[in-house]
Amino acid sequence: MIKGDxxxxxxxxxxxxxxxxxxxxxxxxxxxxxxxxxxxSALYFTLxxxxxxxxxxxxxxxxxxxxxxxxIPGGHLADRRxxxxxxxxxxxxxxxxxxxxxxxxxxxxxxxxxxxxQIAAAVGGAAWGALVARVGGERPxxxxxxxxxxxxxxxxxxxxxAGLALAAGTRGAYVTLILGNAASFALCSV
Length: 190
Known about the structure:
mainly alpha; Growth Hormone, Chain: A; 8 helices
């Protein structure tokens, strides 16, 4: 006879404590949103907005490099103000910046909005690492393995959603992907 219900088993897979389950759930939702956006972002800006691929690549590269530089200061900020607070603020900034991408019509606007997003992502990533270390408890490697499993599943599900939108090939489908990612950041922040 199998003991326990299915929901209880899934809950134990996701984490041994409430904080572990919350962090796993938030990470999962966040990565579903990332999967939605990452698979289609370049196509949205080239096919729908009409920016040349070189400009899209340059904007995203600039944003990525600036974001890389924000990681260490973001870690210091998380140490001073608290990882949870900084993570929530970073997710809120990412929600707003991601939603703002649907208003982008120029290379400069894309560069600015994407840079704000990447700075928030780097700051949030530093805070996320501190939260994982704190919440991981007595078996941090086991918690990180569970977390990685759910994060990967989230990206896969998000990518499947992106594939459906790519198949539709409409502006509305692409905008839905972007706003879905924005909603995932907002939900995780809450």
